[in-house]
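agent> fetching stored inputs for the NAI docking request
agent> found them:
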Amino acid sequence: MGVKEQVEILTNKAMDGSLSLEQALDERLNIINCSPDDIKRFIKAHPPASRMAPGIKDLITSLQARGKAIYLISGGFRELTLPIAAYLGIPKENVFANRMNWQWDDETGMPTRLVGFDMSEPTAHNQGKPQAIARIRQRNPYNTVVMIGDGITDLEAVQTTGGADLFIGSGVVVERPAVAREADWYVYDYNDLLRTMQRYSVAMVGSGAWACAAVRMIAQNTQVDDAADEFVDDVRMWVYEEDFEGKKLTEVINTTHVNPKYFPEFDLGPNVVAVPNIVDAVADADLIVFCAPHQFMHNICKQLVGKIKPGAMAISLTKGMRVRPEGPQLISQMVRRLLGIDCCVLMGANIATDIGREQLSEAVIGYDNLDAAQLFQKIFQRPYFRVSLLPDPVGAEMCGTLKNIVALGAGMVDGLGLGPNSKAAVIRQGLVEMRAFSKALYPSVRDDTFMECCGIGDLVATCYGGRNRLVACEWTKAQLAGKPRTFEDLEAELLKGQKLQGVLTSNEVQEILKMRGWEGQYPLFTTVNRIINGYLPPKYAVDFVAGAKYHIRRPGTEDEEIVPSRPKRPAGAGGVATASMHAA
Ligand SMILES: NC(=O)C1=CN([C@@H]2O[C@H](COP(=O)(O)OP(=O)(O)OC[C@H]3O[C@@H](n4cnc5c(N)ncnc54)[C@H](O)[C@@H]3O)[C@@H](O)[C@H]2O)C=CC1
Ligand SMILES: O=C(CO)COP(=O)(O)O
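agent> prediction call returned; pasting tokens
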């Protein structure tokens, strides 16, 4: 009988429990009697790939992609187990196996002859596997440990206090009746385990430009079918139903895979399914992405109360906030409050059409719950869309919200025909006020967040290429030309159904500034607000310090009136600030 057969017999005896592990090891030592070179030759002749049970590598890859830690506990030898672990992507610190003790050559310092085994390894003894698991549990606070194996010593893992919580017996290579009888679950094909693992279903709530650019990336990611695939291919997208050229917009999207009204240039992908009923769109979703203009979000959330799958997680891409008598509320806070689910945010310099064109863009996921953030990162991350994780969700969302006010100021600078120096002054002051205001409302907000793509990055992108900038620019030009137009009118004409966030946000933020008596501390925010509400002419966009020095008087009427803070100086005509007031 050859060495292989003799070792196999011993291994089987240890695995079916008829020989103690210590005895089996001793006998194996006598049979193997190998040198380091013999081991190298064996590994070369039998590379790990040739020794794998079918389906095990895919199963491990898939579990790791779900964030599960994988350990390899073997009654075999470390020298032979480590190459297998490397092939399976299991870190060597997660391997428990017997260590060989070698005789060392005094001259060369090299190992020469096998002389025994390190009996301090848990795997050198019976009950070694539950002991190894107990060690793992001491070092890591795992809730659940599952043992998968085909031997009695694997089954022991679940029969001993402190060991595994569940044992899945494997008959993939060899079926051992005693193991099959006792296992919590017995499989003959690792793909059975793979198939029963949960896959996450994703829903998008919103169908505007950014919602479409985002769902396109998500659909590209969910469509990938490989061992690590964690997501259901189809992504359901709630579409605020409307007619488009005589047809329902949802029907057009489902037949052409394009949203011709809000994102006309781009194919969303065959796996995006437009759904007109919001409850149907999210009912089965594990991951819910909110991306609707902020003014609609309260009504959206109210419709979803009690309709969300238990355990679902959310992320908000919406930029904006809500102001209630009891104080401000960020959109993610509203989702959390009304729906009772975790909600991260994704914020960055993310102009939708540029992302549709697959130009490099960066975003952060601001999170409280790291597991949720990592899952969302997987559905957004693309080669052209770099997503990093930021443990400051409030800071990130405040940045995304407030930069829209600054972008209005930047648009005014453009409308005034001024150059980059003036715009830089507005951007710089805007960043200062964004940070100060965020920290004043939420002291936990981090300074560094403003240096991220959700801070300075988004601010620059929006002040140069955003819709708020565009509409404010045209609004300013119309004012200067003496043919004033309203923001609503320009929004409808220029954006064709897309929504501005900056004007509403400016009014919402100003309400807070007024309530708290902070207007003077935020000269740019205050001046922009006064300009868009017709109290100051657009030129104050670059003279915001002076613009904020006017204070508001309510002379017994509902109407606000701006007057210079130093009343003795001459004021311009009427209650509306003019160039002469600026001299005050
Ligand atoms: N467009 C962009 O480049 C970016 C937008 N964002 C933010 O994403 C959020 C969503 O913006 P977009 O997707 O661009 O939308 P959008 O402004 O392009 O389109 C407006 C959307 O609102 C929907 N709508 C109209 N009336 C509604 C109602 N009564 N109830 C519910 N929905 C209604 C429309 O159907 C449409 O889907 C906003 O907060 C925006 O600031 C963030 C980054 C980039
Ligand atoms: O938030 C944006 C880019 O990140 C888009 O801003 P606008 O709404 O001004 O286009």
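agent> quick read of the result: The longest strand covers residues 231-238.
agent> awaiting further instructions
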